[in-house]
Amino acid sequence: MNNIDLIVVGSGVMGTFHAYHAARLGQRVLLVEKDAKPVQATVRNFGQVVPSGLGERWFGYGRRSLEIYRDIQQEYDLTVRQNGSVYIASDEEEWQLLNELYDRRRAEHYPCHLLSKTQTLAKYPVLQAGYVRGALFFPEELSVEPDQLIYRLIRYLTNKYNVTYLTNAPVIDCYPTTGGAGITLSDKRTFRARKVLICNGSESRLLFPDLLLNSDLVVSKLQMMQTVPMPQVSLPGNILTGLSIRRYESFTGCASYAQLSTPDHYAELKKWGIHILFKQALDGSFIIGDSHEYAPAAQAEDLDFQIRDYINQLILTEAQRIVQFPVQAIQKTWAGFYAQTKQEILEHDVNDNIHIITGIGGKGMTSCAGYAEQSIRRLLPELYTA
Ligand SMILES: Cc1cc2nc3c(=O)[nH]c(=O)nc-3n(C[C@H](O)[C@H](O)[C@H](O)COP(=O)(O)OP(=O)(O)OC[C@H]3O[C@@H](n4cnc5c(N)ncnc54)[C@H](O)[C@@H]3O)c2cc1C
Fold first, then answer.
1. Which of 31, 49, 100, 330 keeps 20 to 30 A from 9, CA to CA?
2. 20 close to ligand 1 (CB < 6 Angstrom)
3. CA atoms within 13 A on the CB side of 205
4. Does the record carry Endoplasmic reticulum as a key word (predicted)?
5. Shortest-distance Cα residue to atom 18 of ligand 1
6. In this predicted model, what pLDDT tens digit does every residue of 129-171 receive, in sequence order?
C-alpha cells in the first residue's frame, strides 16, 4: 500500500474513531490491529454512552460523541439505541447529589428529569422499592452492544471511507523516516506514512515500552458478568446506582460531595472498587458489573488472569438489593482491563510525526468519538487551514 497519510496502530474505539475522523477529511488511512480482531476493553465493556457522568472537558466530548454515534447510526447500524441513562439514589446523600447534578446539567441545557420514588418505580417496576429514594434521568444518552459495535464501525470505515484494515499485525517498531514515520510488523513487513498514531490501549510492552512502563499509567482490572436472556424483564437504558453516584467524576464537582459519608454496608464494596451498573443487551440478558483492582503498567501481570468469585458474589448481592429479577442466573463472567492516568489521558508526541494516545480509562465508549475529532484537529492542523 502506497501513499498513506496516517497509520493508526490499534483498532479499539480510540484508534478506530481517529481513523474515522481522519478518513472523513480525505486522508488515506491504514488501521493496524495486532489480533485477528479487537478483543480488549472495547468489546468487554457495558456499552454505556453516558456523558452525564463525566467531568467538564469530557462531558463536552461525550455530548459530541452522542451526535457522532447518532449520525453514523442513521446511515449504518452500529447497534446504537437511545434509551437514556438513569442514576438511582438509595439514600438522602445520593439524592442530594442527584439534585445538584440536575441543577448543573439543566444550566448546561442538557436534557434531564428528576424522578421521585413513585415516578422511578412506575418507570422501572423491576427495581426493589426498598432501594429507591429517587432518580435522575438523561433521555438523550445511548447504549451500544460492545460485542458488535467496533466490528461494525470498522466495516463502515472500510466500505465508506476506504480505510485499509490490517489484522493479525502486531506493530513491533515505529521510527522516523524522511518526511514522516514508519512501522514494522512482527512478520517484518514495513509501512510508511506522513504520520503514525499509536492507540495501544493497555498494551505497553510492544512500542515505546521505556516511555509507557515508566509513566504513571495504571492498569485497572474489572470483573463483569452477563445473565441468561430475560426477554420478559424490561429495564431499558443505562442503569447506574448509588455507588456510581458516589464514584463518578460529575458528582465530585457537586457542593455536597465533600460531606459525603460512607454507610457501613458500602465499606467492603468500596474496598474492591465495586459499583453496580446494569445494561440490558438486545437478547434480553443483563450485563452486570463491576469491580476495580489496580496495578502500575509495569506490573500489570500482578492483576492476575483469574476471576475472583468473592468479588462476583459481592456484586450480585448488592445487585439483588436493587432489582427484583434473578441476577444469580449468570451465563458468562469475564475480566476487562484498561489503562488510566492521573492526567485523564496520556497524549505523548514522540516527535512531530509519531504520537501516542492511551490511558483514557473507563470513559472511552462515551467520549472517544468526540475526543478523537479534536485530537485529529490537533494532530493534522493543516487540514483545517485551507
Ligand atoms: C469492563 C469494562 C467496562 C467498561 N464500560 C464502559 C462503558 O460502559 N462506557 C464507557 O464509556 N467506557 C467503558 N469502559 C472503558 C472503555 O471500554 C475503554 O475506555 C475503551 O474501550 C478503550 O479503548 P482503546 O481503544 O484505548 O483500548 P483497547 O480497547 O484496549 O484497544 C487497543 C487496541 O490496540 C491493539 N494494539 C495494542 N498494541 C498494538 C500494537 N503494537 N500493534 C497492533 N495493535 C495493537 C490491541 O490489540 C487493541 O485491540 C469499560 C472498560 C472495561 C474494561
1. 49
2. no
3. 7
4. no
5. 364
6. 999 999 999 999 999 999 999 999 999 999 999 999 999 999 9
